[in-house]
Structures are given as C-alpha cells and as structure tokens.
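Ticket #4471: structure output looks truncated?

Reporter: J.K.
Steps to reproduce: submitted the chain below (79 residues) through the standard prediction queue, then opened the result file.
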Amino acid sequence: MRQEVDRIIEMAWEDRTPFEAIAIQFGLKEQEVIEIMRRHLKKSSFVMWRKRVQRRKTKHLKKRNFGMGRMRSSNQKNY
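Returned output as attached by the reporter:
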C-alpha cells in the first residue's frame, strides 16, 4: 500500500502526467488524489503543488494539446 501511495504522489508531482492517467492506473478521481497529497505531504509542499497544478494544462487531458507529446518517467520500467 505504501508503494502505491508513493507512486500516486510521484505521478501527481509530474507535470505531464494527467489526473486521468492516475485514474486509469489506480481508479482514483482527481479529488481523491488531492486528498492523498494533502494527507501525505507537508502543508507547505501541498500548497506549492496545488498552486502549480491549478495552472497546468498538462494535468488535464481535455485542456492538453496533443502536440505536447508524452513523457515517460525516468524510473518507469521498459517493457
């Protein structure tokens, strides 16, 4: 469970990983991801993350231009 929470936090921090990708992988809605971040981050880190995420088009597929491309996390396994 802790590894799962760590991975959710990591994906939420990544600017180019949309909330929809987290929903597909973990079955969590955006609000549930926000609650996990609120519970597991220091208050200052959470506030900084929320400010950053609210301005990002890349965190929501509907706001995202496909031309931005896709990013793969450096620690994601190569299959």
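Triage note (M.O.): checked the attachment and the full token line is present. The mean pLDDT is 82.
Status: closed, working as intended.
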